[in-house]
Amino acid sequence: MHIHILGICGSFMGGLAALAREAGHRVTGCDANVYPPMSDQLRALGVELIEGYGAEQLALKPDVFVIGNVVSRARAEAFPLMEAILDAGVPYTSGPQWLAEQVLAGRHVLAVAGTHGKTTTTSMLAWILEVAGLQPGFLVGGVPLNFGVSARLGRVAAGERTPFVIEADEYDTAFFDKRSKFVHYRPRTAVLNNLEYDHADIFPDLQAIETQFHHLVRTVPASGLLVINAREEALVRVLARGCWSEVERFGVKSDAPGLRARGEPHAFDVLKSGVKVARVEWSLIGEHNQLNALAAMAAAEHVGVALADAARALASFQNVRRRLELRGEAAGIKVYDDFAHHPTAIRTTVDGLRRRVGLERILAIFEPRSNTMKLGTMKAQLPWALEEADLAFCHGGGLDWDPSESLAPLGDKAVVSDSIDGLVKRVLQAARPGDHLLCMSNGGFGGIHAKLLEGLAARG
Question: By the 8 A CB rule, do 135 and 147 touch?
Answer without folding.
Answer: no
